[in-house]
Each structure stands twice: as structure tokens, then as C-alpha cells.
UniProtKB/TrEMBL annotation:
The lineage of its organism: Bacteria, Bacillati, Actinomycetota, Actinomycetes, Geodermatophilales. PROSITE patterns: ABC_TM1F (PS50929), ABC_TRANSPORTER_2 (PS50893). GO terms for molecular function: ABC-type transporter activity; ATP binding; ATP hydrolysis activity; ATPase-coupled lipid transmembrane transporter activity. The chain crosses the membrane at residues 21-43, 55-74, 128-150, 242-264. Keywords: ATP-binding, Membrane, Nucleotide-binding, Transmembrane, Transmembrane helix. This is ATP-binding cassette, subfamily C. It is a multi-pass membrane protein. The keyword Transmembrane helix applies. Residues 332-563 form the ABC transporter domain. It is found in: Cell membrane. It holds the Pfam family ABC_tran.
Amino acid sequence: MRLNQPGIALVFRQLRGSPRPLAWILLWSVVESLPALVSGLAVSRAVDHFLADDAGLGLGYLALLLGTAAIGAAGTRQLFPWLAAVIEPVRDAFLTAVVRGAVTDETRTVDTAAVARLGEQVQAVREVLFVTLRVVRQIVFTVVAALVGLALLSPVAALLSGACATLALTLFALQLPDLAERHRAVLLAEEEVARRASATVEGVRDAIACGAVDRAADEVGSATDAAVGNERRLVRRTALRTAIVFLGAQLPLLVLLAAAPWLLREGQLTAGGLVGAITYLTVGLEPALRRLVEAVATWGLEMAVTIVRLGEGFTDPQPERDLVPAPARHDLEVSGLTFAYGAHAAPVVRDLDLVLPEGGHLAVVGPSGIGKSTLANLIVGLLPPQGGRVRLGGVDICDIRRGDLRRQLGLIPQEAYVFAGTLRENLTYLAPRAGDRAVTEAADEIGLTPLLERLGGLDARVGAGGVELSAGEKQLIALTRVFLSPAPVVILDEATSSLDPVAEARAEMAFARRQGSLLVIAHRLSSAVRADQVLLLDGDTACLGSHDELVRSSALYADLVGHWDLSRA
């Protein structure tokens, strides 16, 4: 496992950016390990004084041990804020990197395994990093403190224990690559279960219709069986850590007990010293080494493998190539555009030619599922075409810098998103320098003013996803947000579907008056009536013209208009 892999590199980069919290963690770790350092010495002195009939001084050493325990507890309490100061930025950095890796690569198809990486694995990194810094750090300091205390008490016992612990940890380190591979196999198997289960749930109606329920169940079951098998192999391998603990901590104890008569007879140890040495081995070294091996073999490897797996999501960022800034012109030209959702699927868009002049107003209509939203995603570069080009101002959108392209094209989908925060923060997200006057004027243009008044103004807070708002109110917020943005080309992908016809007309006409171009994926035929040009999609063919021209020339369009007129009546 290379340290230069993106995920691991990101962890080290984040840790290097937190020198002050790490310094405080080091300081309080030393304080926390004081009981482990003092325990054997205090017990040794106490026993010797009790044997010499000096109970007062013996009790004093036990009181000293209790005092160091209180100091260690205080050190532990002080650690938690500094642990959070290190761990939370790492979690945020991974979340940002995974999301950015998923959304910046427009050629990447939807991957349900990415949901597992985002929902489970990022959280796993956070939890395991906490365990590593909280538990493994504490164990390491405890082991070092116990060996230092044992060296002060009995150099011979410390040398033996240190040699055995070093040998045990070396053997354990040699097993780590194999354990890491087994952890990775478990992780990939879990992702495969998530991928197959998601595909099965999405296609359950098709599976029932085709009589393929048993096959679908077998596919999910085989993935589950493989995941269980990988888990079992991992458990069997990790069971070897018992031998490591015996070699590193229990063997020195057995040797010490076997040599105790000689050590006492030769004056190498007093009775209290022997009890103190046993205290270091049984209370300090053995539990700490057992927990260290267990933590590294489980949490540590889980974190390392998960970090590497997450890093694969942002290993190869899109190269900038020779991308150019956004052009000064904003006319859109589509030529020979073709797109299909699979290698053997019929194209949703086929050889489409289209021009939206700067300042133009175009409506796209057609039966449900004909490919209108697909066309919108192709125009803004969210889907890669299999053929043809989309040009903005005469420049292929694939050659425009991603950030510049996003600032030129404003897409509002049907499902409007509202961020947790104030209304002002929601509305000015794409125009952070917009003042209150510009915001209220935009809200009045779109028709958002009644909602502002009902909620109490721009400083009113809304929850994540706008759970307290209706679908129409969320759409009005999204419309106002893009209205305020500097985007010269706006695409409304059924962005007014939850508004009534009057509110929809008001919002669309506001965008039509706004400087720039407007493309409307129509939810109602009234959007086509208001547009300068109408594009009718009908499977393999597409017709372009004004509303009146298409009524006369296209039977499908006339039929759609007839149904719309009947519904209005």
C-alpha cells in the first residue's frame, strides 16, 4: 500500500495542516500515560515498605498512584476537543473530494457503488480515524510508558520484554499486507452487494414481468455469499493475533516468573520490585499490546483500505488540456447531436441540429420520456454525446474551462434544491455580491415576494431540502437564485412544474425579459406559445418553428395542442 496514493496523501496533507491540535494531542497524551509510567514503581515501593512494616509510606505510594490516575483522567478529558479539531477536517476533505470526483467527470455514468463510498466509507474513515487517534495513540503511549517504567525498575526485565515485543510486532507487520488485501476484498464485496441490490430494486418490475425473479435473487444472493466468504477468511486470518500477543507480552511474564527465584536470590529484584515488574507486564504491557494488535488488525487496516478505496474516486482528475475561457458570445449551436443510454439502446437524440441565438427564447416540447431532459443535460455538458457537438459562442463546450462553462449556463432541474440556511444565502449562492435590493427586486420579478413576507424576510432560515416548503415554493427559490446569477444562458428543465399556470407564466416572462437566452423544457404547452421558437421532439425526428407554424405543419404538435386546449376547457 503506497503512501503516495491519493487517499493516503490527502490524510497526510490534512494532518500537516493541523500542527497546533497535534501538538496539544502529544502533550496531553504524555499526561494521560503518567499512570502507566508510575504504576509499577509505586506498587514496588509500596510493597517493599509494607514488608518493612512502614505502612504509612506504603500507603503514601498508593496515594501517589491514585493521584497520577486522576491526572491521567484529566489529560484524557482535555484530549477530545483537539481530536475533533483533527478528525472533522479530514472527514470534510474526503467528503469534498469524493463529491467533486463524482460531479466533475461528466463522462462518468451513475455508479451505485459511489453511494456506498459516500454514505458509508467516508463516515468509516471518520470513525476509524477517531479510534486510531483515541485508542491506538493511547495504547502506544501506554506501551512506551510501561517499558520505560520497567527499565527504571529492572533493566533485565525491560530488555527481555522489549525484545519480545519488538519481535512480535515485526511478525505482525509482516502479516499486514495480506490482511490489507483481505480487508480490500471485503470492501469490494460489500460494494458489489450494494451495486447488485440497487440494480435489482430498480428493475424489480421488469424482473417480475419477464419472469426473472429467481435469476435476480440469485445474482444478489451470489454477491452476498461472496461477501460472507470474504468476511470469514478475514476473521480466520486475524485470529493469528493471539499468538502475537502471547509472544510479545505473555512470554516475558512467564520467563520473569520462572526466573524470579534466581532474581530474588541474587538481589536483582526485591519482592516489591518483582510485584512491580509483574504489574507493568500484566496491567500495562499485555493489555496494551493486545489492544494495539487488535486495533491495527481491524480498525487500522479498515481505515487504510477505505482511504485507498475512496482515493480511487478522485485518482485521475480531468486534465485541463488546452481548455479556453468562455467566449464573449453566448449563442448556442447544436450540430449532429446523438446520444443513447447504452451501446445497444436506440438513440434518445439522433443527429439533432439546433441554433439558439443570443437573446433567443426557445421551448422544447414532446411526449413524456422522449428525451427533452436528456437534451438539456447534453447542452450543459452533464452528458457526453456519442456524436455531434454543442457550441457556445462558436466554441465546443468540451473545450471551455469547466468553471467558466458552469457560469455561462444556468440549469434549473424539476427537483429544486434548497440549502440549509437563510433565504438570503439560498438566493445569493450564485451571486454572492448581490445586495438586498437586487435580491428583493428579483424575488418580485419571479413571484417569490409572498413567500419572503410569510417567512419573515431574507434572514428567515430554512432547513436542508426545504422540508417546511412546498414543491412550488422550492421551485420559486431555485428560479430566483438563477435569475440573480450572471449566467447569460438559462435552461428551465420543467423548473415550473409545481407552479400554477399564472405563476409559471410570470416566472417565464421574467426570464424572457432578463438579458440573455432562455431555453424552456416545457411542462405545459403555454410555454411554447410564449416562446419565439419551438422544438418538437418526436423520437427520430425533430421539428423547429414557431407555435403557429408547427400547428399547421406537425400533426403531433397539433394533437398536443388539442389535448392541451381540452384540458384547459
